[in-house]
Design brief:
223 residues; alpha/beta; 5-stranded mixed beta sheet; 3-stranded mixed beta sheet; 5 helices; 8 strands; globular; binds zinc ion
Length: 223
């Protein structure tokens, strides 16, 4: 029923409210950060400027603050070897957690009952030697978001039935680095190097992430 006063409320709430009943204003667009020059920005920033060797400018893209733990669903891979499945799941969760508190607290959700921000998809084979992939998106308004991270469950080199859990741990850490906004490193000791040559997330990986989250989202770095 419209316009009644049975509930004892104000029959003309719009008239008595100073704002009236207009739709609330849309949220303001975020400020576009000013471009910075590589000469000013690129000192002691890890490998955030590494792509400037190939591009005249690069844009830093990251998550906006979420104010809580980020939840990543890490399901069991659907294979008929329960021990191997558990080992792969555990390895992927370890790789995700390598970025815990950098910058968000991270929860690897193994059961899928925590309303995840995104999850891992296991794929039989990703082709060639590829074992991981991050499907990410970015907008000025919302910052970075992730559709899913993909990991291969079949050994990329054909030497064993299933992927090596240590390789999966490193691939998960690498793809999680992309999910948080990092590009590739130019040093094979960093987990963000394009191939799996690191042994863990390095001090330079952490430094790059730290600077990324201290820099306004969308900042252009120009050569
Ligand atoms: Zn990569």
């Amino acid at each position: 029923m419209r316009g009644g006063t049975e509930d004892g409320g104000d029959p003309f709430p719009c008239a008595s409210s100073p704002e009236g009943c207009a739709d609330p204003a849309p949220p303001p667009r975020p400020d576009v950060p000013s471009p910075v020059s590589a000469r000013d920005f690129c000192r002691n920033v890890g490998y955030l400027c590494a792509d400037l060797t190939q591009h005249a400018e690069i844009q830093l893209r990251r998550w906006h603050p979420i104010g809580r733990a980020m939840v990543v669903h890490v399901p069991l891979p659907d294979i008929d070897d329960p021990t191997a499945a558990r080992n792969l799941q555990r390895a992927a969760a370890q790789g995700i957690r390598a970025w815990n508190n950098q910058p968000f607290p991270l929860l690897a959700d193994l059961r899928g009952d925590r309303n995840p921000d995104f999850g891992i998809r296991w794929t039989a084979s990703m082709g060639g030697s590829q074992i991981g992939l991050a499907r990410i998106r970015w907008s000025e308004m919302d910052g970075l978001g992730v559709d899913y991270l993909e990991l291969g469950i079949v050994s990329a080199d054909g030497q064993r039935a299933w992927a090596d859990p240590n390789q999966i741990r490193l691939a998960a850490a690498h793809e999680m680095g992309h999910a948080l906004g990092l590009g590739h490193s130019d040093s094979d000791r960093d987990v963000m190097y394009p191939t799996n040559t690191a042994t863990s997330v390095s001090a330079r990986d952490r430094r790059s992430m730290e600077v990324l989250y201290k820099t306004p989202d969308g900042t252009l770095i120009q050569r």
